[in-house]
Amino acid sequence: MAISEQHIQCPQCGESISIDAVLTHQIEEKIKKTLEASHKKKEHALIQQAEALQKQTVLLQESEKNMQLLISNQVSEKLKTEKIKLFQAAKSEAEKEQYEIKSLLEEQLKSKDEKLTQATKNEVALRKQQIQLQEEKQAFELDKMRQLEEAKVAFIEEAEKKATEDQKYVVAQLKKQLTDAIKAKDDLARKLEQGSQKTQGEVLELELEDILRAEFPHDKILPVPTGVTGADIIQEVHDSAGRFCGKIAWETKKTKSWNENWIQKLKDDQRAIKADLAVIVSAALPDYVKGFIFHNGVWICDIKLITALAIALRMNLTTLAREKSMSVGKNEKMEILYSYLTGIEFKQRVEAIVEAFNSMDMALKKERIAVSCHNRRVSAFN
């Protein structure tokens, strides 16, 4: 992705001026001044070092003169007869010492020159490295901008691919279920606002009744009147052709604690009405239930999973009814039906259907969150 060059117009002459060119010139002038100032400082330091070395040389020469004078006086006073010999020896010693001092100073000067040269090289390398880092930074930012644009395009294409007809159908189906559930809740809320004096258990029963009617229009939802012995709701399952497939006995409990006696009572009611399945929907669940479970011949379900469990149970009843109609005349059909309903295969199939329903619901929620985040990112990018 090419980066467009920005210009401004001169308020006096009206000429278009490149902002990038002005900034580049300013940066170059600033670096040039910095390098010139650094060079002047180094030249000044070298001049000072040379002056200091010259002063040391003068001091050395003066010291040498003083030493020669002192040696001459001492030799003259103590050993006049050996004056020439001692003078030469002292002069030789002084020259040797002067040579060593001079060599030491030259080595120090050479070391300083080498350090200065190395420092200059290091500074040049550092400058080059800074320029290279700036160029790499600009290239990195440009590459990231390109990657961001490519990721944006890829994300949009991926989002469009995910919006297939099957997903649209699932979304529409879940939306319908959600709309029906909301409508049922709204109807229930209106009933409560109109001054209904029913208990919490009756409210849950009404909610379950509305949900079942909304989800399964082909079935007969028969509420049991208050005070009559039996389950709260009887669901007579019918397929799309109107054929009877079986009964489900629903018992609702809106209490703070679980009572194991409910299971036996519902099983007695199930036998009395000859229901194929029995379900307890309760706000309070036993410790061994996480969501729903088939326990002691009865399904125990959380309130949140009513729709999912009802779909699974009804689907299995319609499937069994179809298989029964295909095996009419066989004496063992009742045994097969009972064995299947109480077997692990039926339980696992119901669990698989409920888990698939929950997975679809979670996937839909994640997709909505992802689309919402994408929209916010696109808005922020634009």
Descriptive overview:
The chain has about 375 residues and is of the alpha/beta class. It folds into two domains: about 20-160, no CATH class; about 170-380. The protein has eight helices and eight strands, in the order E-E-H-H-H-H-E-E-E-H-E-E-E-H-H-H. The strands form two sheets. A six-stranded mixed sheet has the order 3-4-5-6-8-7. Strands 1-2 form a two-stranded antiparallel ribbon. Strand 4 and strand 5 form a beta hairpin. Helix 6 packs across helix 8 (about 345-380). The protein is elongated and about 150 Å long.
Q: How many structural domains in the coordinates? A: 2
Q: Estimate the strand proportion.
A: 5-15%
Rg calculated over all Cα atoms = 49 Å
Average pLDDT works out at: 76
Helix count, per DSSP?
8
Helix content: 55-70%
End-to-end gap: 16 Å
Helix vs. strand class: alpha/beta
**Regions with little confidence, pLDDT below 50 for 5+ residues:** 194-198
The number of E-state strands comes to 8
Let me know the largest β-sheet. Answer: 6 strands, mixed
Overall body shape = elongated
Run of helices and strands: EEHHHHEEEHEEEHHH
What strand order characterises the main sheet?
A: 3-4-5-6-8-7
